[in-house]
Amino acid sequence: MVTYLQQARRAGLSRLDTKGSPYLYIAPFFLLFALFGLFPLLYTAYVSFNDWDLLDAGSHSWVGLANYRELLQDAYFWNALGNTLSIWVLSTVPQLLAALWIAHLLNHRLRARTALRMGVLLPNITSIVAVTIVFTQLFGRDFGMVNWLLGAVGIGPVDWQAGTWSSHLAISFIVAWRWVGYNALIYLASMQAIPHDLYEAAELDGASQSQQFWRITVPMLRPTIIFTTVISTIGGLQIMAEPLLFASSQTPTGGSDRQFQTVALFMYEQGFREFRFGYASAIAWTLCLVIVVFAIVNFLLTRRIADDED
Amino acid sequence: MTTLMEPPPADTVPAPAPRPARRRRGFGYPRKASIWTYGALLAVVAGSVFPLYWSLVVSSQTSDAVTRVPPALIPGGHLFDNIARVFDTTDFGRALLNSFIVSGSITVSVVFFSTLAGFAFAKLRFRGRKPLLVLAIATSMVPHQLGIIPLYIMMAEFGWTGRLTAVIVPGLVTAFGVFFMTQYLGRAVPDELLEAGRVDGAGTFGLYWHVVLPAARPAAAVLGLFTFMQAWNDFFWPLVVLQDNATVQVALSALASGYTTDYTLTLTGTLLATLPILIVFMVLGRQIVGGIMQGAIKG
């Protein structure tokens, strides 16, 4: 038997449970994100306005915009920014085109469907360190297999690390190789969502297979294509592990002439080799702004395309 | 704990809808693959597998094989000698153990908190639900890597530098996990089931424990795999904060550094570092592929 009082108490508790508990359940995510995700990023802004030397803990002084002024006049920074954009374009554009083609290949009635999809995804589950080390060996000047293959068609040995373009190409290849299969599966998922009658109608109108691909498949995938571009922007502009490991000495200068130092790697060099935390933070925030600008441009593009479809 | 929930009675499972009759005019969609399609796909897969295969070739040969022209293409018989050499050269066993501890802790935590938050977002009504969900998803866009300097200063304050805690704690939750579980639980847990639980007097945590967790198992497995692989492969932050107490990726990069790299040694290390992930992938690759493709449709 339950008394009226017990019932009322239980109702009150249960209301507290339904009203309050959802916040309790989502709180761990937001608290941990605030502490280890958001706060460091905001604190970076504070640090960037200081002369802050790790070896000299505690003795940092407010210098206002001095770090940013220095950065804008630093030839190494502009060099790193150029390298970053170059590697980003060289890795993203061919990668997304190849992903589109691979997705198209996978979008057939296939035997061993799952095995083929897994094979395509394999590069993405191997670590950046493992991938870069193997490719650095393959791109070796004297005994690398890439040069051996090029030699077979009469192209003389390339010192991949030494040149600006050659190093950018090699690093972009490594990045693209690791991500192309992942993006192909994302495109494949969207392709499978395209209504079949579009193709049947086009077929009746006599459209060829390649016409169907460019006139139906690609336009229907545009939101997904823009989505993958945005994601590649955010990831690609932060690249640092590949160029760090591509130099066999693993010094964060990105080659002897800084020919493949990216902005993130420049930040790492200034922060953890030169121990100039204030300056490194200014680099971080500047790169963050670059990423935001690119992301906004891509977002506006996405919205416009979405509007066009309505 | 997960067996407390009885499977739903058979009659509540919707009967499969009759297949819509497909108009067939000599072709169906998707098209049947031609021999060229197979050929091209096999070439792509070969390109995907080759670097790992090459690691196996090099790590099973003597040291002179790397400099051989034309290159060796068939594995030899020296794999175990080289593995022994890796363990002699560096404390690779410790690095593997560290990586298991870090990745295991992060995986358990991410799955638990993501399922809890996903349950709240997908199935509970509360003020601010929509905007908070959007905010949670938006956090995944934040370029975390750019906050490492203050994060390092924080860890130094806590006295955590060089300790695994410094890598584990910032990884305890992910926005992707919350998003993924919200999507899944929204579809997988019928409201009637939760309503029945409420009528039986279960509180929200009781519903989570007895109804949601059992229903979430397939998605939790996929999320767990993703999280484990990501944590296992993480390099930049452990490199900065762990110093000598290396995880497997940091130990691997140390093996590869130096002006003359011993590639036989390094590629053997690469193989060892990749093996645990490879085994997981071989066993559960189907689910991983499915997880990526499901996430994509909503993405």
What is this entry, summarized?
Chain A has twelve helices and two strands. Chain A has 310 residues and is mainly alpha-helical. Chain A folds into two domains: 4-38; 66-309, Orthogonal Bundle (MetI-like fold).
Protein described:
- The complex is a heterodimer of chains A (310) and B (299).
- Chain A is mostly helical.
- Chain A has 2 domains: 4-38; 66-309, MetI-like fold (Orthogonal Bundle), CATH 1.10.3720.
- Chain A has helices at residues 4-48, 66-72, 75-106, 113-125, 128-138, 145-152, 164-192, 196-204, 209-236, 241-246, 263-272, 277-309, and strands spanning 50-51, 61-62.
- Chain A has a two-stranded antiparallel sheet with strand order 1-2.
- The mean pLDDT of chain A is 88.
- Chain B is an all-alpha fold.
- Chain B has one domain (36-298): MetI-like (MetI-like fold, Orthogonal Bundle), CATH 1.10.3720.10.
- Chain B is globular, with a radius of gyration of 24 Å.
Write the layout of secondary structure elements.
The complex is a heterodimer of chains A (310) and B (299).
Chain A: H1 4-48, E1 50-51, E2 61-62, H2 66-72, H3 75-106, H4 113-125, H5 128-138, H6 145-152, H7 164-192, H8 196-204, H9 209-236, H10 241-246, H11 263-272, H12 277-309
Helix pairs in contact in A: 1-12, 3-7, 3-9, 3-11, 4-7, 5-7, 7-9, 9-12, 11-12
Chain B: H1 35-59, H2 79-89, H3 92-123, H4 129-138, H5 148-158, H6 165-168, H7 175-188, H8 191-199, H9 204-233, H10 236-242, H11 248-256, H12 263-298
Q: List the secondary-structure elements of chain B in sequence, H or E.
A: HHHHHHHHHHHH
Low-confidence stretches of chain A: none
- Fourth CATH level, the homologous superfamily of chain B: MetI-like
Order of helices and strands of chain A: HEEHHHHHHHHHHH
Given helix and strand content, the structural type of chain B is mainly alpha
Family (chain B): Belongs to the binding-protein-dependent transport system permease family.
Pfam families (chain B): BPD_transp_1 (PF00528)
Subcellular location (chain B): Cell membrane
Organism (chain B): Actinoplanes utahensis
